[in-house]
Design a protein that fits this description.
- The chain is mostly helical and about 90 residues long.
- The protein has six helices and no strands.
- It has helices spanning about 5-20, 25-35, 45-50, 55-65, 75-85, 90.
- Residues about 1-10 and about 85-93 have low confidence and may be disordered.
Length: about 90
């Protein structure tokens, strides 16, 4: 165990489950961000990520894969971090 509280482990496992979308590209982007960036993210960025996980797959794919823009600065920053982490932004252009 890594010294996390039990509640934190449950929350992490719930987020991991929510990252499973059934679309390989989304699964990889979301799980990768969760594993590599989520813990260091600000509270606002974590809230945006959790909100993104509630979106339907077509809308989420529009932001993360197709490069659709968002107006909110914090949301745009999180989406950019998710996409840049794997080079998905280059593939969308």
């Amino acid at each position: 165990m890594t010294g996390q509280t039990p509640g934190c482990e449950v929350k992490d496992s719930q987020l991991k489950w929510q990252c499973r979308r059934g679309i390989l590209e989304l699964d990889e982007l979301l799980a990768g961000y969760l594993e590599q960036c989520y813990r260091e993210a600000s509270d606002a960025e974590k809230a945006v990520f959790r909100e993104l996980l509630t979106l339907p797959n077509p809308e989420l794919a529009g932001y993360l894969i197709a490069g659709r823009e968002v107006a909110d600065g914090v949301s745009a920053r999180v989406i950019s971090r998710i996409r840049n982490r794997t080079g998905a932004e280059e593939a969308a252009t």
